[in-house]
Amino acid sequence: MEDKDFLQFIANVKKMTGIDLALYKEAQMKRRLTSLRMKRGYATFTHYFDAISKDKELFYEFLDRMTINVSEFFRNPGRWDVLENKILPRLAKQSGRVKCWSAACSTGEEPYTLSLILLRKKLEATILASDIDEGALSKAKQGVYTDRSLQDCPKELISKYFAKDTLSYRISEEVKKRITFKKHNLLADTFDTQFDLIICRNVMIYFTEEAKHELYHKFSRALKPGGVLFVGSTEQIFQPQQYQLEAEDTFFYRKMG
User: Domain named CheR-type methyltransferase: which ranges (predicted)?
Assistant: First the structure.
């Protein structure tokens, strides 16, 4: 009965939002959503779905739990050093103006980190930043962050590009202006093409092997030859050649051809 209830919930969510929860790892997703449903006092997923389809706050909370919006500036700083000093100079030399995409950008720390690096390197670029969660995108557009989000951000960048309020830091318009935020479902929507750099980190871990396989193909097709896919520290791609990719550095994959 319980499984039938959850499967019906998956079908209802897909019908209402286009989000296919069947493409996420089931045990992980079910555990997370069950704890949220019970916390909110709903005995079944049927009752919970009725509630989220009528209550916007509950719906955004559901999306938030599903997508795990945890991010910081310069997360895993060593990898950003490689991007800044090895990958971006090559891409700029190849393309002049670097076309970038921060996919599943959550609350914006990642595309803003990229923008800060591009400013520091004085490189011309455009950045598309996308996520499935409108609540996360709304926070990203505001560009207001706590100390915790900025713990790995270099102090000179904080003093130059952030205005400090009592409890938070507001990012400057100079950092914001090259970024376009957009709602986008990685699993269902079409991808733009001719990217020099795609960053998609700490997202693939939530998807089934089949969904990952399809996404790597789509990312590869979206890259220019010589373009780079930058993935998270738990997301090494085995046999990247099947996606026309090759390792350029740890967690950086270059499009072949």
Answer: 1-257
